[in-house]
Amino acid sequence: MDFVLSGAAACGACLFTNPLEVVKTRMQLQGELRSRGSYQVYYRNVFHAFYTIGKVDGLAGLQKGLVPGLVYQFCMNGVRLGSYAIIESSGYIHTNGRVNAAKTTIAGALAGVVGAVMGSPVYLVKTHLQSQATSSIAVGHQYQHQGMVHALSAIYRQHGILGLWRGSSAAVPRVSVGSAAQLSTFSSSKELVIDLQVFPKDSWLVALSAGMISSVVVVAAMTPFDVVSTRLYNQPVDHLGKGQLYKGFLDCFTKTLRKEGLLGLYKGLGASYFRLGPHTILSLFFWDELRKVYQKIR
């Protein structure tokens, strides 16, 4: 039940934040491996990207990749948050009745690794679909998938089962760093808010406040890994399934840093916060509240 509740919470958040994921993906691919000023800027900022995508691709364009997005959130976060809930209820993350920062970080990272490996094939497809755009505003490599099932079968036919896990070398550090930052700060922030007695202990505002604090830390820690992950997943591949732009995580990281500078690793930072911030707040809030409801009716 921990896994089901965790997956449902993440899907609830995804329904609201998927348009921001589309914007974030496009902004991270814009000007890939090009120095500043040497490429056409289609998306100037988060709001301009929203307007441009809505105008050219239509409102449906802002919900591209929603189906694989929901499947990914249910699988990845179901496993990640469900694993963490089991670790938490076993008492591992507490020392002398208090949340232990080191233990929550380790537990969050381990839960993140398991979730990232499980959800990688669907995240690959989601990235491909969300980068697809009308040629006048297209950025990054353009795959011609017709939907999630078509994409999965096409990748499997061309590159076999291992092709579905292409890019997972970036997904593991991305999700483990994000998960460690998110879950450790969420547990610690919840304890802090309760200690300060700002809200009643069982109030939904405790989880909401902790989620807001956690979201800032998550975005700062996760964005460089997120940029690398998006680019590795979306790069064109040869007939053997090998990337034509990057060999792997470190190659992508160093090439981006060398060609685009440090800011290149923080491309789409605003979009990342607008997407990851609300998603972190909503998923942790839904997760905490659903667990409370389940404990009451159990």
Query: How many beta-strand elements?
Result: 2
- The first-to-last residue Cα distance is 11 Å
Number of helices: 9
Low-confidence stretches: none
Tell me about the largest β-sheet. 2 strands, antiparallel
The largest beta-sheet arranges its strands as 1-2
Mean pLDDT: 91
Structural class estimated from helices and strands: mainly alpha
State the shape.
Answer: globular
Beta-strand percent range: under 5%
Helical content class: over 70%
Radius of gyration: 19 Å
Care to describe what's here?
By secondary structure, this protein is an all-alpha fold. Helices cover 71% and strands 1% of the residues. It has a two-stranded antiparallel ribbon with strand order 1-2. α1 packs across α2 and α6 runs antiparallel to α7 (204-234). The mean pLDDT is 91.
Write the layout of secondary structure elements.
Elements: H1 2-29, H2 46-57, H3 66-89, E1 94-95, E2 98-99, H4 101-131, H5 148-163, H6 168-196, H7 204-234, H8 249-260, H9 269-297
Antiparallel strand pairs: 1-2
Helix pairs in contact: 1-2, 1-3, 1-9, 3-4, 4-5, 4-6, 6-7, 7-8, 7-9
